[in-house]
Design goal:
The chain is of the alpha/beta class and 222 residues long. The chain contains six helices and six strands, in the order H-H-E-H-E-H-E-H-E-E-H-E. The strands form two sheets. A four-stranded mixed beta sheet has the order 1-4-5-6, sandwiched between helices. Strands 2-3 form a two-stranded parallel ribbon. The N and C termini lie far apart (58 Å).
């Protein structure tokens, strides 16, 4: 092995990563805009992923909303994970937050569907990263299909997409000042202590990934 071999491999991997980010740019935009619009207005936000995609939803939650950025802005967040007590205990935590993000395992699991319904009744905008959005009719405000079920296995892709999407989300937010979090009876929202990570990407061309707004059930708040 020569000294040039590791450098050549790194360059090839960097090129593959850049191409993957470019191919999937259109997949991110509905998610970025929905997050920016919701946070700008001081609204609640519930972000979750189906199956393995919840790992990537977790990355998005902790970075785009919870991290302190170079300009000093830090948006309120509380990253929720399924508790040992189950979905009922998770749902009880949803109420008192100005902006919230939740990571759940399988979005079609009946227990977690109850969490989604509870969140919408509380006025949260529900965003979903899923493999089959048809199962979420009436449960999500924005459902984004990610055909590749394991995009986090692509080396370097998650970290590169993080930088790209963070810039887009902040650009959207700077277009109009976002609402400051309200101080509630039980104190300010908790801030995530998670480290900066990446965001979701598919590894197929935009034509293979579709986005749409799932219709809201009658009487549900968005």
């Amino acid at each position: 092995m020569t000294q040039a071999d590791p450098r050549a491999r790194a360059e090839r991997q960097a090129l593959k990563t850049r191409e993957a980010v470019r191919r999937n740019a259109s997949v991110f935009m509905p998610l970025v805009r929905a997050m920016a619009e919701t946070v700008r207005g001081g609204g609640r936000l519930l972000l979750f992923g189906e199956g393995r995609l919840h790992l990537l939803a977790d990355h998005a939650a902790t970075d785009v909303v919870g991290r302190r950025h170079q300009d000093g802005s830090q948006l309120p967040t509380d990253v929720l994970v399924p508790s040992p007590e189950g979905a009922a205990a998770t749902a009880r935590r949803i109420g008192p937050l100005d902006a919230l993000l939740c990571v759940v395992g399988d979005c079609v699991d009946p227990m977690f569907c109850s969490v989604l319904e509870h969140a919408r009744k509380r006025g949260a905008k529900v965003l979903c990263l899923c493999i089959g959005r048809a199962r979420l009719e009436g449960r999500a405000d924005v459902a984004i299909d990610v055909p590749e079920p394991r995009p986090h296995r692509v080396a370097g892709l998650v970290a590169s997409v993080l930088h790209y999407v963070s810039k887009l989300a902040l650009k959207e937010l700077r277009a109009s000042p976002y609402a400051r979090p309200r101080r509630l009876d039980n104190g300010p929202p908790r801030r995530s202590s998670g480290a900066s990570s990446g965001l979701v990407s598919a590894v197929s061309p935009p034509a293979a990934a579709s986005t749409r707004r799932a219709p809201s059930p009658a009487g549900a708040s968005s």
